[in-house]
């Protein structure tokens, strides 16, 4: 007999004396609207508002949390249908789905399992757990659900209670999809300005992008000055489209400005295709400082996601491209790296910076001490591998005592997996409820304060963190 | 109606089965006398024994835990009355106090909140919680308390049950205040020898201090030999005044000796005002080794507090001076850094070294393995940002299994905030009681052993760690 | 009256609601056979199968967990009978035993205490706890037990339920002891191939070992090619003797291959006694890559134990030799270090690598993300200082959410202390039971899944991890 799928009402709440308190706290936040102010859902989804495809292409293929776990146990990327750069793809959706279902036990103890159970049961209304035996039945059931109009992206926005959702968009995106959405749903789906591909001068194709940037902005990017001007223009275009923030993925948090002439020299060398790796790294750090300077002017909130070595496996990258779950964290450093930026903008009125990490060692050592004194800083929610029950609990335990609650950003879901968004917010609210309940039963926090803090963590802090300050 | 201020009798004790055990353990240690063998209260306080001033200047302005949190949420240092180096100060004490009270929610979940609640309720006898509404009432109530004779510093020493309290004093301090106190309270308030300003050759004003050192010691500090001799003499003067220990704040734990000639060369270059940053750093590491050598001779316990980047924000430093809460930790390293020192003195009979850190990653990786084998080492209590409920719990969890209890130092309060001392010791005793109770209910420790260990952690280990061994 | 020795049936299980679940889970795994696939018991023990000597030489002198703690509190290595390299040893076994017993309190809260209590009570049948008063009585009681035939090594193999035990053997070991054992107990005691002494070219005596290797393998190790060939041959000899794995202790995890000519040049320089430290380090990293290449061919599982600075105290090393508890961890790095190796072999079918660490900071930052995507990787059990109740709990909490359960290796006891083996496995099973029970009562894992995972962690994963894959 197949196993029933029944997410427990108390899942991820603490046991013992704290449970009752945690239940009450969670009950007070679970129905709050969702602010999704940092994520990676494709804007085209909401622009087209078409029915989703099959279960595999919705729930397996694009979710690198899921595919990386299957790959780690010997399932080849091809059997999971990861599209090769050469355009070939051999696996059929139903075969992919069977692979996933027959390896369901691999996800025991992982956040993917919570999210998926929540999606299966509460979003898709399934009642049996995935397994080799139930794979086909589930495939058919989900497929038929996805054809119903209430499973279209815009309908789900409402059903999920999403007040605002932010996408992440290349600085060279023309924002056409956003324009289309805004016509129907003004202010509901907003872009985020991501200039990464433009500030890393040694990435293949950079000079084409610089040209594209110039065209879009109506500026001449054949000079460094023009390039800066073009970035400024694009930021204004994003602001006009509703953007509240920028996003920056750098290998390190280094943010040391260069002399203008030196920056211009490196920029020129890149245009000639001759930039060195060291110069490119220095320029990236310089541009992080410049982005802070622009944020201090135009009020876009600066989000920094450093410390990940992208495309760890060159063969996977060569065959399947980037973002296939083969990005691996390295040790992070913020205290020295951010010092020049904070020296200049740490107390600047119009400036807000949100720091993320995938290296937990900096929570108590660097991030909480920094956010606990610089008014411009907020600590972002536990990111990526750390967006998990124990990961979120450790975040609170390691930062609250130094930074308090009010120097944190509130939850951000940071996902491409649209159907997982309610599950992710709900899990975060459960973990925060449990953390607060523990403080209450240990008489470290009054219960009335706990309720207020829970509201703030679930909703208000995201709202106040992601506010344009200019 | 204002909220009542009622620190719960079980605060910071674990919930569930362990609570009853933790209560019993805490009851057995809560009234033990306080040994305050590392701290920063000003000796002049006890020499003059005058009434404290107003609530703001007692409880807000000098407490950088408090001011940094308020600054992090946009309250300017000026509104908090931080004295500018140019002598100006605009905010009135009552205004400062109002700022503090109206931001009381920022401290939820932080140790400052525990300490202050304890001080308010148990030391000052207040009954309502701070808030914008209660600020004036509390200000007046505290002000009138502070005029009573039982709130004078020496009276509080008795009331707090402080057996001995150690100040921290520059090596160039003439110890006049201590002489004055010793006449009335022999052995009760003792100095600690802190030579930091003398061993960091590139700090502004160093050569004046070297001159001052020579005068005080009656030695000629125009040579490196005379400088070493003068330090030796000052250590003797501190010993005569009751000192048990020295204290050293270095950016890194590096303790590599230089050849005598090389040290002399660097010293001479510093006297000429020409020392390089690299030479100054090497000299600081050399002097840490020399201080260990002197400790091995004269028996002063060497305390090392490394790993903090001081004055992270140069503008704050330029305006308000050092120690304004803008010191931020960096990654620490002990295994390689201390090796030369431990190779020479790690097994030396007369030598005792207490290691502190603000980087938790070294607890299980380096500190516990080192203290678990070198007889000269003890692990200091969780320091600064880590002197907090969860911080102290993690310390025990991360070091005990490798270093045991008896290679730790017992609690040190390490504070300038005199009124917070009982609160800090009490909180540490509660957390240790909770940790031990958890071991008891998990059948990892017998209850009779837990009581003995609790006594040792609360009192005996501080006494035996801070004993001059020569 | 002496204190009774009564390990509690629920020891190291969680308190509260999770206890009952943990008991049930532990009951289901506690009697499973032991797979001891990485350890350091001497093969000669099983070859000779003679009675153990006295209590001190069995339980104190060779256990560096025990001696390091005693040394840390001022007991000299000589009083503990650590054999000096010059052959002298002054302390009598009974005196050593008395030192140990009178310092029994030092082990409170450490895993040594659990293991020893388990050994005393459940293996040796003692009923009173060690103390200065009971030392002689215990000494006599243990001594008489050890003369009984059921306390011979082979008898204990049966009594302990050890299905297979692996020793660790130098690549230059002739495996004569294993041949002797295999005649009586085929497949029960197997060797592990450890080439460390041969790949670190700057260690004293290296060239003699290289010569010895050549003799054993019938290859000419005066050339780099011959050296590689000899290693290949010895691996085959180990495979013939039942080996499943190799073991590698390196200071760093660096595994960057050199050009063949460069490797040959360094090898030749070492033969001339002229290798530089930098060249030796590069060669060690190169050889780690080569060992992976050989593993990918012959299927031996590659175990890596990096990140330990050996012989931290040169004086102890000079007097007593290596492995005296003076090895101290340093910060570890895997993401960049292993990249060249994983690029080449991370997805190779026949290749399996098990990663260990004594630096917990890499659990969630590097190890779980790596093992959660590369099919060749498994995460080894918490090693050395981390093989402890809280250490094992933190391992599960920090790796499971990213790597799941099925990218971990199962428990390895990794000990020279034969009598402690059942205690170590039992403690690991208790901690895993507690971790799983906590997930169950927090509704993060179904109880039926918890039972299956517990079986896998206790037995199946060790079996499947340590399987030759060629």
Write up this protein.
- With 470 residues, chain A is of the alpha/beta class.
- Chain A has 2 domains: 18-50 and 150-465, TIM Barrel (Alpha-Beta Barrel), CATH 3.20.20.140; 51-149, uronate isomerase, domain 2, chain A.
- Chain A has 20 helices and 11 strands.
- The longest helix of chain A has 22 residues, at 277-298.
- Chain A starts with 17 loop residues before the first helix and ends in a 5-residue tail after the last helix.
- The B-C interface holds B 16-18, 331, 333, 335-336, 339, 342-343, 346-347, 361, 364-366, 368-375, 377, 397-398, 400-407, 438-439, 441-445, 449, 452-453 and C 8, 10-16, 68-69, 71-74, 105-111, 114, 309, 312-315, 325-326, 328-331, 358-361, 385-386, 388-391, 394.
- Chains A, B, C: It holds the Pfam family UxaC.
- Chains A, B, C: Belongs to the metallo-dependent hydrolases superfamily. Uronate isomerase family.
- Chains A, B, C: Keywords: Isomerase.
- Chains A, B, C: Its EC number is 5.3.1.12.
